[in-house]
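Predict the structure of HIT domain-containing protein.
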Amino acid sequence: MEDCIFCKIIRGEIPSEKIYEDDEVLAFLDLGQVTKGHTLIIPKKHVRNVFDLPPETAAEIFRRVPKIAGALKEAFPLEGLNVINNNEEVASQTVFHYHVHLIPRYSKNKDDFGFKWKDNSNTYSAEDFKARAEAIKAHL
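Done. Here is the predicted structure for HIT domain-containing protein.
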C-alpha cells in the first residue's frame, strides 16, 4: 500500500531498527518502546488486520514468533513477554498493517505497562456463556 508507514519501512523509505528479515516477514523495534526491546513483527505483504489475514500469512508470522521471542529473552533479563495484536481503532490499532507486538516484561513492579485482565465471570450466567460459545461455533 502506497502510504502505509509499515509498507514504507519494508521498502526502505523510512528507517527502522530491523532485527529480523526474510522474504515473508520483517521484525523491527517499535519506536515507542513500551518496554526495552518492544518489537513488531509484520508480514511484508500488506494486510489490514486479523480479519483480512490469510491463514498462510498467519503461519509465516507465527512461525517466527518463538525465534524472535527467544532472542529477546537472551538479549535482555526479561521475566515474561506479552504477545499482543490490536485490530481496528476500537481495539487500539493505530497502524492499519497487520502486526504483532512482542513486549518484554521485566518486573511486575517496574514495568510501566499496566496490561491486566479483568475477570467478568460474575456478570453473566452459565446459559449466557453457553449461548456465546454457540454463536461463535455457528460461524466456523
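Strands lie at 18-21, 25-29, 39-43, 80-84, 100-105.
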